């Protein structure tokens, strides 16, 4: 059994942490820095050109020892090995969890049910390389012989968020004569807005659906198919559509040449699939060499995660800090702020990775959970978000732990833009930690020549309590290798959290109920209502919408 033998929150390790957390909640980080000149170096980890500074957290060496003991209690080392060895740790679906096999760069055998999966992984990678290069060079052409320069990815969830984030993050490396688009939302506007920009003769659609039955993806794909047929005729479908799927029958029925179907496997979850054929659009956008470098970076993080002692292990430390705040400080939110415009989609990607993985309330022993699991993740690109939710981070009534992510070097060194950007991220983490006392605020106002009464009326508004935690992740620049490392870092962090919370991070049953009910409601919007099937609110809304559409 993969799960713990008992509830983790009833363990001695958990109770020791809970007791120590009550003490640490009274500690001031600024004072800890003042007392320990080596604090920054003691709470930091580096790997290649990536550096994690986690010293601005409400921790000390004893807290970290207790957190590491909790990881040991959860059997983390054993469970890491189970994942890497192909054990079926996705218990509810009886599947292995092997996104790590997709970037297994030393190509050592990984077995599932006695079969080495690497030959198939390598076959699909070779197929991605061949096809992406032919599209980029123009040797794979459209129905009229023109080069395909508009590439459209049709998917949803993991078949959209991962590749879209990566294509945006690596925009600097795009082939300049090509454009890349994504259609995911079932809202027809999303489809129409993309199609309005395209020329049918130069457009390639990549339909990403493992089963080739996903309602949002297939609805959008069928609309795009009709648009193409109206312009070029039905035979054009085979030259303008490819599929990432496992359902050859449905792919062929759609009109796609099955030779242009790229497989992936049930041991690859959707939100972990950008390393697979779901990443085909990434390979076309940035070239297969850069796609491989992304795999290389992820593999470097995989090996660090697998082989490094937990006290110096980036994903483990980030996960333990998350658990520290969620379960022992009662914090229910975490924020991700990349200070790089190319990473502006990273927070949305991580929302799915974290909350779809760990937004669970039943443990692996089939019991409802009595402790907190996934925090709510939000974020955005700095410096934009400094002018939106940072007010809450600095002066809100509860603190929100923050991950700052920044490249030391910009791809676009225009004037002193990057210096200002770097200064901002460093200032924000320092300001969150230090704050500003009411006395300091009063002195500042006094130095500006304000009257005593004005100082009294303003000083509390100018007070920052500080002691608000953050991690800072610095790397040299955003390239394919660094992106691979960064995404793998958060994948493994999410896995560690799931292990300690004793939940299955690899199913997503919470997305099913709403979809099931939608299938029942859809006929009622088009025909006769069935009041007995719903509550009064839903019935009233169905009636209202139908009346407004007349």
Structural features:
about 550 residues, alpha/beta, Rossmann fold, Phosphoglucose isomerase, C-terminal domain, six-stranded mixed sheet, five-stranded parallel sheet, 22 helices, about 45% helix, globular
Descriptive notes:
Helix 15 links the parallel strand 10 and strand 11 (376-379). This protein has a six-stranded mixed β-sheet with strand order 1-2-13-12-10-11, sandwiched between helices. The protein has a five-stranded parallel β-sheet with strand order 6-5-7-8-9, with helices on both faces. The chain has 22 helices and 13 strands. The model has no long low-confidence stretch (mean pLDDT 95). The N and C termini lie far apart (57 Å). It has three domains: 10-73 and 308-434 and 468-507, Glucose-6-phosphate isomerase like protein, domain 1 (Rossmann fold); 112-291, 3-Layer(aba) Sandwich (Rossmann fold), CATH 3.40.50.10490; 510-548, Phosphoglucose isomerase, C-terminal domain, CATH 1.10.1390. The chain has 550 residues and is of the alpha/beta class. The protein is globular and about 80 Å long.
What is the topological layout?
Layout lengths: L11 H13 L4 H7 L3 H4 L1 E4 L2 E4 L7 H13 L2 H9 L26 E2 L2 E2 L1 H20 L12 E5 L6 H9 L9 E5 L4 H8 L7 E6 L6 H18 L4 H4 E4 L3 H7 L6 E2 L17 H7 L1 H20 L6 H15 L4 E6 L7 H13 L17 E4 L10 H6 L6 E6 L9 H18 L3 H10 L4 H7 L11 E6 L4 H22 L10 H15 L9 H13 L2
Parallel strand pairs: 5-6, 5-7, 7-8, 8-9, 10-11, 10-12, 12-13
Antiparallel strand pairs: 1-2, 2-13, 3-4
Helix pairs in contact: 1-4, 4-14, 6-12, 7-12, 7-15, 12-13, 13-20, 14-20, 15-20, 21-22
């Amino acid at each position: 059994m993969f799960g713990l033998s008992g509830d983790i929150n009833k363990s001695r390790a958990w109770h020791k942490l809970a007791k120590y957390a009550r003490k640490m909640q009274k500690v001031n980080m600024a004072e800890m820095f003042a007392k320990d000149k080596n604090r920054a170096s003691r709470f930091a980890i580096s790997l290649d050109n990536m550096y994690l500074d986690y010293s601005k957290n409400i921790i000390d060496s004893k807290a970290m020892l207790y957190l590491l003991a909790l990881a040991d209690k959860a059997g983390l080392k054993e469970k890491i090995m189970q994942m890497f060895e192909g054990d079926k740790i996705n218990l509810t679906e009886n599947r292995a969890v092997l996104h790590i096999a997709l970037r297994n760069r030393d190509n050592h055998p990984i077995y599932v049910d006695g079969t080495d999966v690497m030959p198939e992984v390598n076959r699909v990678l070779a197929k991605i390389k061949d096809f992406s290069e032919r599209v980029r060079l123009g040797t794979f052409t459209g129905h009229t012989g023109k080069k395909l320069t508009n590439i459209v990815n049709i998917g949803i969830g993991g078949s959209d968020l991962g590749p879209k984030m990566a294509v945006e993050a690596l925009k600097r490396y795009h082939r300049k004569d090509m454009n890349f688009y994504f259609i995911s939302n079932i809202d027809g506007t999303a489809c129409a807005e993309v199609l309005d920009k395209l020329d049918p003769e130069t457009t390639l659609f990549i339909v990403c659906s493992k089963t080739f039955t996903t309602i949002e993806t297939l609805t959008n794909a069928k609309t795009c198919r009709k648009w193409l047929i109206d312009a070029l005729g039905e035979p054009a479908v085979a030259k303008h559509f490819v599929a990432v799927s496992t359902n050859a029958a449905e792919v062929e029925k759609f009109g796609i040449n099955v030779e242009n179907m790229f497989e992936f496997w049930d041991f690859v979850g959707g939100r972990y699939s950008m390393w697979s054929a779901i990443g085909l659009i990434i390979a076309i956008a940035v070239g297969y060499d850069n796609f491989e470098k992304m795999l290389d970076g992820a593999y470097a993080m995989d090996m660090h995660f697998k082989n490094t002692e937990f006290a110096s292990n980036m994903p483990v430390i980030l996960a333990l800090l998350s658990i520290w705040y969620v379960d022992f400080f009662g914090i229910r939110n975490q924020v991700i702020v990349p200070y790089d415009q190319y990473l502006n989609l990273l927070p949305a990607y991580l929302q799915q990775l974290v909350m779809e993985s760990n937004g669970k309330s039943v443990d692996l022993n089939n019991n409802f959970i009595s402790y907190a699991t996934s925090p709510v993740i939000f974020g955005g690109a700095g410096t934009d978000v400094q002018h939106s939710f940072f007010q809450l981070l600095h002066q809100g009534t509860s603190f929100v732990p923050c991950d700052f992510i920044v490249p030391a070097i910009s791809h676009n060194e225009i004037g002193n833009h990057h210096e200002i950007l770097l200064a901002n991220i460093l200032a924000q983490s320092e300001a969150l930690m230090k704050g500003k006392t009411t006395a300091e605020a009063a002195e500042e106002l006094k130095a500006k020549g304000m009257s005593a009464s004005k100082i009294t009326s303003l000083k509390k508004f100018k007070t920052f309590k500080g002691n608000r935690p953050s991690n800072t992740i610095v790397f040299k620049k955003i390239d394919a290798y660094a992106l691979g490392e960064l995404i793998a870092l958060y994948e493994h962090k999410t896995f560690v959290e799931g292990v300690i919370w004793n939940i299955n991070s690899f199913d997503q049953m919470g997305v099913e109920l709403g979809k099931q009910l939608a299938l029942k409601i859809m006929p009622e919007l088009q025909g006769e209502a069935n009041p007995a099937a719903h509550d009064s609110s839903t019935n009233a809304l169905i009636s209202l919408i139908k009346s407004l559409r007349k």
